[in-house]
Amino acid sequence: MSFIATLERAWQRTQSLLCVGLDPEPSRFPPHLTGRADAIFTFCRDIVDATAPYASAFKPQIAYFAAHRAEEQLEALIAHIHARHPGLPVVLDAKRGDIGSTAQQYAREAFERYCADAVTVNPYLGFDSIEPYLAYRDKGVIVLCRTSNQGGSDLQFLDIGGQPLYQHVAALAAEQWNTSGQLGLVVGATFPKEIDAVRQRVGTMPLLIPGIGAQGGDIEATVHAGRTADGTGMMINSSRAILYARSGEDFASAAADAARATRDAINAYR
Description:
Elements: H1 3-14, E1 18-22, H2 39-51, E2 57-60, H3 62-66, H4 71-84, E3 91-96, H5 100-113, E4 118-121, H6 127-134, E5 140-146, H7 153-156, E6 159-160, E7 163-164, H8 165-177, E8 183-187, H9 192-202, E9 207-209, H10 219-226, E10 234-238, H11 240-243, H12 251-267
Parallel strand pairs: 1-2, 1-10, 3-4, 4-5, 5-8, 8-9, 9-10
Antiparallel strand pairs: 6-7
Helix pairs in contact: 2-4, 2-12, 5-6, 8-9, 9-10
């Protein structure tokens, strides 16, 4: 089944638009995991198992694993999600962007090594840097458009023929690049007006929306700006506010409480 079909089923089955971000920082793990060789996998696995009833997707950030030489733990984690929670797609947050031949290797990494259902990519090098990912016809490719960080405005608001660059990227993704029918866009919750502008430009294309929780994005404004006519269309990501809801041995149950509360807050405005 394709990424978008899986995502749409997950939205309906779980009645949730929450995407749980997996950004493991060992310095913030509960003390009982200190020194364990598999600490990153164990922490993330327990978070996944606790929050899966309230989520429609998971988003591991590859840098948090690679920085600790934990790529094999990332492989094991994604395999665990697929085995224990089938139907919940995994978005590998890698933000890759390179020339075509190198992009082919990054695509192999994301889809063959890690078996992710989708990957985030940077469009700055143009379509030929994205095209290798599209060869995996059922896999999702989620293009950075309007990012949640303040510095994104340095480039994303540059005037391109009378429109800001981020809107030009949205138009390219929706009108020219989506040859597989599996594209999505990253638009930050910290900029709800831009979410609305992108939604108007791209129709029902799914949006990955980081920035609620620790980054301060407003849930009500985000949902009103980004929802589609059926009240879906978004993977609204929360990472730190869920992962580190508590720091003791009950970290997983606290994460479940935070995930449920976030799901419910999103659903209140759908």
